[in-house]
Design goal:
Length: about 230
């Protein structure tokens, strides 16, 4: 029975990659994401891992991404996209709401070139991206390296990032990966597994800290009520 309950309450981690688009008939992001060792990560971290391919259209992001958050309430959401300019694993720190003038796979742009998700002009992830890069580069990932970036490209990559950041920026990350000639898909997949582990560790730390803070607030509130009650009885 306990095993059944463990399965029901396992934290869920979502990792998305993009499908094909202009100049990328095979998208390096999904090619790597689908090679992530799902069983290993699920067993090692007691999580449920869902890997999804997202079509390269603004409408699909608008439709699918908020629904994924609402349906699954993920512990962690990692979006992965390809960058022809990237020479290593690139972790994005922010996303903008406006400026989406590049057409998607269906030759469309969002209305007024603005992301439909509500939020500030620019949203940042609360994850410590620099720490993730430092820990990644200090690990035994000899074939790859990681850097941070403030420019996610004002295309579907930044659009999907903004959409998820607007839901919960404390458990959302976007990762740009180089095209396949630079990193073979298997190499990128191993790098993404490590990024996932480091990011999940950070999210768990943040959640634990938040729980402790909430408990301390409750204790303080209870003490305050007790003092007020005692004074009223004097």
């Amino acid at each position: 029975m306990s095993n059944d309950l463990d399965f029901l309450f396992k934290p869920l981690v979502l990792v998305t990659g993009f499908g094909p688009f202009l100049n990328h008939p095979v998208n390096a992001s999904w090619e790597a994401v689908k090679l992530i060792n799902k069983e290993m990560l699920e067993t090692k971290h007691n999580i449920e891992l869902v890997l999804l391919e997202i079509p390269v259209t603004y409408e699909n992001v608008d439709e699918f991404v908020p629904a994924l958050w609402e349906t699954h309430t993920p512990k962690l959401m990692i979006h992965v996209g390809v960058s022809s300019e990237a020479s290593c694993i690139t972790l994005e720190t922010q996303a903008h709401r406006k400026g989406y003038q590049r057409q998607d796979y269906f030759e469309k742009c969002p209305p007024n070139n603005i992301c439909t998700a509500e939020g500030a002009i620019r949203l940042h992830t609360k994850l410590n991206v620099e720490r993730i890069c430092k820990e990644f580069n200090g690990s035994c990932m000899d074939e790859t390296s990681a850097i941070s970036s403030k420019d996610a490209g004002r295309y579907l990559c930044e659009y999907i990032y903004y959409t998820s950041l607007s839901v919960d920026n404390s458990r959302t990350l976007f990762v740009h990966v180089p095209d396949i000639p630079k990193y073979p898909s298997e190499v990128t997949a191993r790098a993404l597994e490590k990024i996932l582990e480091l990011t999940l560790e950070q999210v768990i730390e943040m959640d634990s800290s938040r729980e402790v803070t909430e408990k301390l607030k409750d204790v303080s509130l209870d003490n305050s009520r007790g003092e007020n009650s005692a004074q009223n009885n004097l």
